[in-house]
Amino acid sequence: MTALVAHARIALADPEAIIVPLCEHLAEHGAEISQEKGATIIALGSYRGWLQSSDGHLVVRAEAPDMASLQEAKQAITSHVIEFAPRGEAVPAIAWTGAGSGVAIPSSFRILTVTDVRDVSPHMRRISFHGDDLARFDSLDALHVRLFLPPPDLAEPEWPTFGEDGILRLPAADKAPAVRKYTIREIDTAAGTVTLDFVLHEDAGPGAAFAARARPGDRIGMAGPGGRGLREADWYLFMGDETALPAIGRMLAHLPPTARGIAFIEIANAGEEQALVCPAGIEIRWLHRHGAEAGTTALLQEAFEGVIWPSEEATVYLWAALEHTGFKALRAAARKRLRPERDHHLIVSYWRRGISEDRQAD
Ligand SMILES: Cc1cc2nc3c(=O)[nH]c(=O)nc-3n(C[C@H](O)[C@H](O)[C@H](O)COP(=O)(O)OP(=O)(O)OC[C@H]3O[C@@H](n4cnc5c(N)ncnc54)[C@H](O)[C@@H]3O)c2cc1C
123 is in which domain, residue-wise? Predict the structure, then answer.
């Protein structure tokens, strides 16, 4: 595949003084750094960056197989040039030339329009959307997306854009969308449709509040996809509360017909159970909270302790997502039980009781 290439030429008093800390920093984030013909080469994910000091300038070339990776490269290089500029040195305006130059919507970003809203159960709302060019989101390996939820009273939503300097900019604070992670429940790229299931929870933040008021014609943004999803195994163990139900439901529907295993799903009560498409060899066990608040029970950990595992020869895949406290307990239990040389697992915290997603990095 032909690579997309962009260039920048940035006037700096001492370009080397930026190249060294910039590369050290990106190396801490997994970049491989090498030298070739006087240039320092950064290889991170699927992009490459060439940095060279020339005649009072930092000369940069970025190369990537697709526009999303090229935008990522430009953003990483520009933001770190600014960050690592010696104290007091103002970095001149940076303008990339070549592929993707000018102001652009992030290439991993799509605008979705609500087409249908219906309730799967009293606290699970299924919303269908129309969007263009959805192929990149159709992956069982990367199940979740970031939703950009504009403030409800905004007549015309505003979206993030990459400036010609390669930096991602969000709209001004009063117009900025809230960002929340959700899972694609169903996607049909030919029809241009995507369906997401939203838990209608107490103390609704922007995610649950959007689902509660959504009407056909409403628009939101979607970026991604991300995370890890399905792996091949002889025996599957899926565990999660209702926030994980969209991911578990999607994975079950795409397992081979011969798949074997168990899915434990914690929900409020029997009224929240839903029909799931899955192979005959997967047993579904609903765990009811019987009036306890979400995120306060040990139902999933207890279920894990009671699992009857397959024979020693079988490989296992455990996928689990739940509230943060339960996640920590389950992760500790799984590390003791699973065999690192044979089994794979993904155990993730999907939300924190009493803390909105905005504050989870605090
Ligand atoms: C990778 C990933 C995928 C996810 N996929 C989905 C999905 O497909 N569907 C889905 O519904 N959720 C999903 N979640 C969980 C969802 O992102 C969180 O529940 C998120 O907090 C909801 O945002 P909000 O704006 O409604 O609430 P926030 O503003 O984040 O939080 C407001 C308050 O609500 C509480 N709260 C948040 N979630 C719940 C809950 N489920 N039950 C009770 N109280 C809660 C918080 O503790 C806080 O007190 C996913 C999370 C991750 C990380």
Answer: 109-226
Q: Tell me if 228 CB under 6 Å of ligand 1.
A: no
- Give residue 215's pLDDT: 97
- Cβ-Cβ contacts under 8 Å for 99 (sequence gap 6 or more): 4, 5, 6, 67, 70
* CATH number assigned to the domain comprising residue 81: 3.30.310.50
169 and 64 in one domain?
Answer: no
Burial 101-136 (b: 16+ CB within 10 A, else e): eeeeebbbbbbbebbebeebbebbbbbbbbbeebee
Distance 85 CA to ligand 1 centre (A): 38
**Residue 309 main-chain phi, psi, to 5 deg:** -80, 155
Using one digit for the tens of pLDDT, what is the confidence trace for 250-304? Answer: 999 999 999 999 999 999 999 999 999 999 999 999 999 999 999 999 999 999 9
Q: Give the position, in ligand 1's atom list, of the atom nearest the Cα of 124.
A: 11
User: Residue range 329-333: average pLDDT?
Assistant: 96
Residue nearest to atom 45 of ligand 1 (CA): 201
Average pLDDT over residues 53-76: 93
- Residue 184 covered by a domain: yes
356 touches ligand 1 (CB under 6 Å): yes
Going from the Cα of 253 to the center of ligand 1, the distance in angstroms, rounded, reads 23
Regarding the beta carbon of 278 and ligand 1, being less than 6 Å apart is answered no
Percent of the chain with pLDDT over 70: 99
Assess whether the C-beta atom of 289 lies below 6 angstroms from ligand 1.
Answer: no
User: Do residues 62 and 133 both lie within one domain?
Assistant: no
CATH number at residue 248: 3.40.50.80
pLDDT of residue 292: 97
Among residues 98, 119, 146, the one where a domain terminates is 98
Specify whether 249 is located in the same domain as 333.
yes
Residue 103 lies in a domain: no
- Report the pLDDT value the prediction gives residue 361, as an integer from 0 to 100: 54
Beta bridge partner(s), residue 239: 264, 320
Ligand 1 midpoint to CA 94 (Å): 38
pLDDT at 148: 96
CA 103–ligand 1 middle distance (angstroms): 32
Q: What is the CA radius of gyration of the chain?
A: 23
Q: Is the CB of 124 within 6 Å of ligand 1?
A: no
Distance between Cα 275 and ligand 1 center (Å): 22
